[in-house]
């Protein structure tokens, strides 16, 4: 180790070459979002603590146990964002995006989020998410669109083991009666004091409990799917029909509630069975009352958060074929002072033509420079010496096949562009 300092415990960091994959899958998502008409947001990393208390829910583990909260110099309570939806909605309302055009407002963002959790593989204190939201429409087609964007992204990465789990959590019309029924059932179970307190605040959260002892007792719990009102049932059926039309398969999962209080109606999760306990690689749902909860107007919405960290792990677990674009396609090997200056200009020309190019620095000899070329991952090396300059050529070597040919200097860029495009 070259320093006495280390990254804080539980922080996920990425360095080349793994960081190249991280960046590439983010860019692949950006393209999916662009194709569907979603604009990009760059947002605050910390917010007024009450935004998350009111938006995410006091009864959630996120708010009650996991937030990084601090007081600034003005005595204001601030919190590093533990999730994105509340922050995105706050920004949409603050900037009046819902008043500036047709609804829904369609936006996406990405970056780190923070939760004070026990670090383990796939669960970090600083982790990275892609977030996409469609705000201002109750149309089930919007629900299906968000699910399709995520599903298409996973497919574009070459992932084949992703499962879509789907449920409906009802609305403010049908949920109160179900809530009372569920509370009556839960109060009869042998649960610890903290879980009993949760029953009175948000009993649906108890269904999300992963402890085996609790799950055994939940086997006979009433399910929201059996108590949906006619409007919610129709909405859910239409979402499922639209997914079927798109050829997107799903598994009805009536116990799926996810970990946040704001979800209504459509709720879903993407699961990857090769990741063990941290198999949830993304998920989301509808949050039709969240705008009012944080002091805004009635404004329905739906969106998701996809875990970049767990997606990288899923790609590695599957050995998926998706690969980042090479950081170097052509590597320059100059031999001598005059060749260094000419190569520097040639590398700039290659880059201007859209070819990823690098070169050996520091006056290295042929053997050392060719080692650098091999380490760079480049497909071709361009070798340029004093005699080559006088002859007006450079030697182009295929680093995979080993074949080397002399190419006129004026033709280097078009020749390499043509070869790389094959």
Automatic annotation (TrEMBL):
<comment type="similarity">
    <text>Belongs to the class-II aminoacyl-tRNA synthetase family.</text>
</comment>
<dbReference type="InterPro" id="IPR015807">
    <property type="entry name" value="His-tRNA-ligase"/>
</dbReference>
<dbReference type="InterPro" id="IPR036621">
    <property type="entry name" value="Anticodon-bd_dom_sf"/>
</dbReference>
<dbReference type="GO" id="GO:0005524">
    <property type="term" value="F:ATP binding"/>
</dbReference>
<dbReference type="GO" id="GO:0005737">
    <property type="term" value="C:cytoplasm"/>
</dbReference>
<keyword id="KW-0067">ATP-binding</keyword>
<keyword id="KW-0648">Protein biosynthesis</keyword>
<dbReference type="Pfam" id="PF13393">
    <property type="entry name" value="tRNA-synt_His"/>
</dbReference>
<dbReference type="GO" id="GO:0004821">
    <property type="term" value="F:histidine-tRNA ligase activity"/>
</dbReference>
<keyword id="KW-0963">Cytoplasm</keyword>
<dbReference type="InterPro" id="IPR004516">
    <property type="entry name" value="HisRS/HisZ"/>
</dbReference>
<dbReference type="InterPro" id="IPR004154">
    <property type="entry name" value="Anticodon-bd"/>
</dbReference>
<feature type="binding site">
    <location>
        <position position="133"/>
    </location>
    <ligand>
        <name>L-histidine</name>
    </ligand>
</feature>
<dbReference type="InterPro" id="IPR045864">
    <property type="entry name" value="aa-tRNA-synth_II/BPL/LPL"/>
</dbReference>
<protein>
    <recommendedName>
        <fullName>Histidine--tRNA ligase</fullName>
        <ecNumber>6.1.1.21</ecNumber>
    </recommendedName>
</protein>
<keyword id="KW-0030">Aminoacyl-tRNA synthetase</keyword>
<dbReference type="GO" id="GO:0006427">
    <property type="term" value="P:histidyl-tRNA aminoacylation"/>
</dbReference>
<dbReference type="InterPro" id="IPR033656">
    <property type="entry name" value="HisRS_anticodon"/>
</dbReference>
<feature type="binding site">
    <location>
        <begin position="83"/>
        <end position="85"/>
    </location>
    <ligand>
        <name>L-histidine</name>
    </ligand>
</feature>
<feature type="binding site">
    <location>
        <begin position="262"/>
        <end position="263"/>
    </location>
    <ligand>
        <name>L-histidine</name>
    </ligand>
</feature>
<feature type="binding site">
    <location>
        <position position="258"/>
    </location>
    <ligand>
        <name>L-histidine</name>
    </ligand>
</feature>
<comment type="subunit">
    <text>Homodimer.</text>
</comment>
<feature type="binding site">
    <location>
        <position position="129"/>
    </location>
    <ligand>
        <name>L-histidine</name>
    </ligand>
</feature>
<feature type="domain" description="Aminoacyl-transfer RNA synthetases class-II family profile">
    <location>
        <begin position="21"/>
        <end position="326"/>
    </location>
</feature>
<keyword id="KW-0436">Ligase</keyword>
<dbReference type="InterPro" id="IPR006195">
    <property type="entry name" value="aa-tRNA-synth_II"/>
</dbReference>
<keyword id="KW-0547">Nucleotide-binding</keyword>
<dbReference type="InterPro" id="IPR041715">
    <property type="entry name" value="HisRS-like_core"/>
</dbReference>
<feature type="binding site">
    <location>
        <position position="115"/>
    </location>
    <ligand>
        <name>L-histidine</name>
    </ligand>
</feature>
<dbReference type="Pfam" id="PF03129">
    <property type="entry name" value="HGTP_anticodon"/>
</dbReference>
């Amino acid at each position: 180790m070259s320093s006495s300092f280390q990254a804080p415990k539980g922080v996920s960091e990425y360095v080349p070459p793994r960081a190249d994959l991280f960046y590439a899958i983010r860019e692949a998502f950006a393209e999916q979002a662009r194709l569907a008409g979603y604009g990009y947001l760059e947002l605050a990393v910390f917010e007024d603590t009450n935004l998350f208390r009111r938006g995410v829910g006091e009864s959630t583990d996120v708010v009650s146990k996991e937030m990084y909260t601090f007081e600034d110099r003005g005595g204001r309570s601030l919190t590093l964002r533990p999730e994105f939806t509340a922050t995105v909605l706050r920004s949409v309302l603050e900037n009046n995006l819902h008043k500036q055009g047709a609804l829904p407002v369609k936006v996406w963002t990405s970056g780190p989020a923070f939760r004070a959790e026990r670090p383990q593989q796939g669960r970090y204190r600083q982790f990275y998410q892609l977030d996409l939201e469609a705000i201002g429409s109750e149309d089930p087609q919007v629900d299906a669109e968000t699910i399709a964007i995520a599903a298409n992204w996973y497919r574009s990465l070459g992932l084949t083991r992703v499962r879509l789990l789907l449920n409906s959590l009802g609305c403010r019309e049908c949920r109160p009666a179900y809530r009372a029924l569920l509370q009556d059932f839960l109060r009869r179970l042998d649960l610890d004091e903290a879980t009993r307190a949760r029953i009175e605040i948000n009993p649906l959260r108890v269904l999300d409990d992963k402890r085996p002892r609790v799950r055994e007792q939940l086997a006979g719990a009433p399910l929201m799917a059996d108590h949906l009102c006619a409007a919610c049932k129709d909405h859910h059926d239409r979402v499922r029909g639209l997914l079927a039309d798109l050829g997107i398969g799903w598994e009805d999962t009536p116990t799926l509630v996810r970990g946040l209080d704001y979800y209504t109606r459509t709720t879903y999760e993407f699961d990857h069975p090769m990741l063990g306990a941290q198999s949830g690689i993304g998920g989301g749902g509808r949050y039709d009352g969240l705008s009012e909860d944080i002091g805004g107007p009635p404004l329905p919405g739906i969106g998701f958060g996809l875990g970049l960290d767990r997606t990288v792990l899923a790609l590695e677990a599957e050995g998926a074929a998706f690969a980042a674009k090479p950081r170097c396609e052509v590597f320059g090997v100059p031999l001598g002072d005059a060749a260094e200056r000419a190569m520097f200009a040639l590398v700039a020309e290659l880059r201007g033509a859209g070819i990823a190019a690098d070169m050996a620095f520091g006056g290295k000899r042929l053997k050392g420079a060719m080692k650098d070329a091999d380490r760079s991952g480049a497909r071709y090396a361009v070798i340029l010496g004093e005699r080559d300059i006088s002859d007006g050529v450079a030697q182009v070597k295929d680093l995979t096949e080993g074949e080397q040919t002399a190419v006129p200097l004026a033709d280097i860029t078009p020749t390499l562009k043509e070869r790389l495009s094959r």
